[in-house]
Amino acid sequence: MWHFLHFQLSKIFLLACQFMKILTWIFSDYVDISERKTECKQTMAYLFPFFAFSGCPAGWVRHGKSCYYIDDTPTQTWSAARAACKGLGADLPIITSAEENKFIGDLVFKQTTVTWGGAWIGIQRKQADDKLYWIDGTPVAGGYTSWSRGNPSNSGGNEDCGHIMGKAGPGWKHQEKMWNDVPCALTASWFRNKYPVILCEKSLI
Hints:
Layout: H1 2-26, H2 33-47, E1 61-63, E2 66-71, H3 78-86, H4 98-109, E3 119-126, E4 131-134, E5 161-164, E6 179-182, E7 198-203
Antiparallel strand pairs: 1-2, 2-7, 3-4, 3-5, 5-6
Helix pairs in contact: 1-2
């Protein structure tokens, strides 16, 4: 909770500081506006040392308008991974482009622990209509997708959550960094305990 509040306070400070600097610049014809913004970021870095210059918390990585964080602990359930992200003021990622998917896939592969399970992503099936949705309520179908061949398959009728796949064995390399649907609670024997890890996203907006 403290990290989340700290993050929000830093954003408010940066916006307020830049607004005041812009007002000063309006009445000044000798200081470049970029210098004013740099002053604000330097002040923020001093007052909020927990945050990197990118605007993301330490240990997080920025891409576009979001910060991403991986806890490379294999996690058996989708709900546990999501709860961990919410505890950081974030949520499971919503992937909207090939560029973002590549960034996330590359980020997963940079971790110490890279299982076949890769990482959980913010896809879950709604029982009301038996369709997959992103956690913000957007239908998965009709938007950007990167499903591996034959997926989503809903094999067994209970593959209600999604993950981006990690390292695969020989003959299956084409599946790496692609999506797969799996049960939201994996069994202890699932791919020899190669569960997905926790991947979180928080917006900078």
